[in-house]
Predict the 3D structure of the following.
Amino acid sequence: MAQWWCYNVAMFNSKKRSKDTKNKPVNKRIVTELLDPKGADGDAVQSWRVFRIMAEFVQGFELLRDHGLAATFWGSARTTPDDPYYKEAEELAAKLAKKGYSIISGGGPGIMEASNVGAFKVGGRSVGLNIQLPFEQKLNPYTTESLDFDFFFSRKVMLTFASEVYVYFPGGFGTLDELFEILTLIQTKKIEPIPVILYGKDYWEPLLGFFEKTLLKKFKTISPEDLELFHVVDSVDEAFKYINKNVNTKNVNQI
């Protein structure tokens, strides 16, 4: 009886707020990014979309709870299977999967697919955390487990707290966004130091030069030790050796 009463009170209040706010200006950014603008009685009016967001977090944590030792791969969705970086991502993922790592990616094509392919081919655990986008992104067929996300921020949380090592291949804005997210979390001690590998010197060295010359020396917006938060490699063997040396496989991050 109490639950029925609380539910009806909540429904009454939400309808009242809907009427009260009908003529007020709408925050377009909130509507676009968080709420569903479709329909007069949709999520944008009653803000029920928060439960969809909660569901993505719950489903994501439940999936990742089953994975102990794990490695997350990032990189461009546009990298094709004939690209050397695709082949190297596949090879590195296969080596790690054989060693017992679950391979986690954003679930899409390109480097994400390559890492899932590597794990899939050797019978490893291959996880795809996919995002629904109008272009580029669709779940690749080489995952043994997967989830689809509507919201970037909930997906980012899953990718951020999933693994013992993070491997970044050349990519676009999304890859760089994820890199800066991880580096900021480590820098601010929100998460423990975790091996962060930047794969491909040709791609990463110009950005690292910007870090050192502009951020560190010219504007002093970072500290010298911040340049030690990541490690640059240029081959599968180099990456594999670094991971073996710096990841404690007996003390995994458990959600």
About this structure: Residues 57-245 form a domain with the Rossmann fold fold (CATH 3.40.50.450). The first strand starts at residue 70 and ends at 74.
